[in-house]
From TrEMBL:
Annotated protein name in UniProt: SigmaK-factor processing regulatory BofA
InterPro entries found in the cross-reference section: BofA (IPR010001)
Pfam families cross-referenced by the UniProt entry: BofA (PF07441)
Stretches that traverse the bilayer: 21-42, 48-71, 78-103
Length: 109
């Protein structure tokens, strides 16, 4: 049984094996699949990073313009917990922090 590989002498007289058409197609297909998977992973990672940055910026802007005073509440304390929630949750995380702060639930430890 042959594997589809052929042996030839190159221009220097060294024996080399060449890849068959089926093996070349399989390798090309695997490279395309790998490229698509990497593209999707990087695209989702960039989207998560943008969401995290926007969440932290919104938290900072809320305190900068004293927007919690509209609800009769002091500024949201910026600590490691609120930064983590806004970075991981993004805009949704900031909304959760705001609702908890309005309800009087402190996010300090």
């Amino acid at each position: 049984m042959t594997s589809g590989r052929t042996r030839k002498l190159n221009t220097r007289g060294v024996m080399v094996e060449s890849m068959g058409i089926l093996e070349g197609a399989i390798v090309l297909l695997l490279v395309i699949i790998l490229a698509v998977v990497l593209f999707r992973l990087l695209r989702s990672a960039v989207a998560l990073l943008i969401n995290a940055v926007v969440g932290v910026i919104i938290l900072f802007v809320i305190n900068l313009f004293n927007l919690m005073a509209l609800f009769g509440r002091p500024d949201i304390p910026i600590n490691i917990l609120t930064i983590l929630i806004s970075a991981i949750g993004g805009i949704i995380g900031v909304i959760i922090i705001i609702l908890l702060h309005i309800a009087g639930i402190s996010l300090t430890f």
